[in-house]
Amino acid sequence: MALIKSISGIRGTIGGRPGEGLSPLDVVKFTAAYGTWLLRQNAENKKVVIGRDGRISGEMVKNLVVSTLNGLGIDVVDLDLSTTPTVEIAVKMEQAAGGIILTASHNPREWNALKLLNGEGEFISGADGAEVLELAANEDFVFADVSKLGTYRKDDSYLQKHVDLVVNYPLVDVKAIKACNFKVVVDAVNSTGAIYVPALLKALGVAEVEVLFGEVNGKFSHNPEPLPENLTALSNEVNKSEADFGIAVDPDVDRLCFVCEDGSMFGEEYTLVAVADYVLKHRKGNTVSNMSSTQALKDITLKNGGEYHPSAVGEVNVVTKMKAVNAVIGGEGNGGIIVPDLHYGRDALIGIGLFLSHLAQSKKKMKALRNSYPDYFISKNKIELDKGIDVKNIFEKIKGKYKKQPQNTEDGLKIEFDKDWVHLRTSNTEPIIRIYAESHNETTADNIARKIMQDIKEFI
């Protein structure tokens, strides 16, 4: 059993003793803490939007969340089966005080989580998250009396509202997409992508859509993280059906990646690169990605006359940096696209609209489009830590060993070696150090990562 309490939300495995997994008591406690925090921010706004992905535990967790919020006197707008970006959009449209998304993102089916949003439909800040955790720890909440209980309203209109926002976005070229008569295979991993992605593709004029794992039952047919090793069925079906490309999303539809017509991976790192290239060709400006993402975004940004800015890892950090530098596009190398004038959140649906517009206007096949971008290889590794290990001391020793190289300590430690780099950071959710290294050469990236991992083991 696992329960991870972070500033951005509460994540855990379903079941077990309270405090050891995401038990019903934990769901109630942390929902009550969040609701109390919202009411302290603004006692007049008592509206919260909620939505869930297709997880097995989703209905149970939702019922607990709704009842707890109603018990605090908070009115709930329930989107039910939805996506993370749809809930973010709905918070703004509803002028709600906040929102809760019931999803554990790419984690396996035994996991679920409460992702917490502010009134802007964005993930709450570190400081706000700390307040929520303190309220939960102290159980510092007071429920409403019987005459002041909150109300409940189910709203299924936001699928169409979200699709309409994408279709009507100025840079989404529906006419060009429709003219291509695309044949597409979608891996919906038994979650809400099976509802939302086909609806969007139909609205964009895609000629033929085949959905793999389209039953929304939360019994994920494969590991739900959209990585190459988990997308073999999609790759094989694209080949077999002679589709133009494949689309994969994670269970809450905020990550996006593509498979080329030959079954090869476009590369999740290159989803943002391609979308940014398209946006920057139509709209001059700056870009942001987290510092564990590919340098190809920086190359594309400079080529299009903009400035690239790295941020700390985490969506809230990317958004903060995007606002600071007035970025026109940004996101994360895990296939997360953030289009600021739509909303400040990773959104696979707007990513699909922009990517397909780019592909259609380029008049290239998917593989040829991928080959038009610089090749970088990221070696992604991790080292598990024993309790009590002084990570700060390890990082200080590595900093000293490579003191002649440019370094960035905004988020862990990033060291640059000419055009190569390595980024070390502790995980927010696991007792590990992640080691990402990038180079134009795959072997070089692996060797850089291996060398740093040896250094870590030496300094433990």
From TrEMBL:
Keywords: Isomerase, Magnesium, Metal-binding, Phosphoprotein. Residues 397-453 form the Alpha-D-phosphohexomutase C-terminal domain. Its cofactor is Mg(2+). It is an enzyme of class 5 (isomerase). GO terms for biological process: carbohydrate metabolic process; peptidoglycan biosynthetic process; UDP-N-acetylglucosamine biosynthetic process. It comes from the Bacteria. Pfam families: PGM_PMM_I, PGM_PMM_II, PGM_PMM_III, PGM_PMM_IV. One of its GO terms (cellular component) is cytosol. GO terms for molecular function: magnesium ion binding; phosphoglucosamine mutase activity; phosphomannomutase activity. The keyword Cell membrane does not apply. Residues 8-141, 171-263, 270-374 form the Alpha-D-phosphohexomutase alpha/beta/alpha domain. The keyword Magnesium applies. Its EC number is 5.4.2.10. Belongs to the phosphohexose mutase family. This is Phosphoglucosamine mutase.
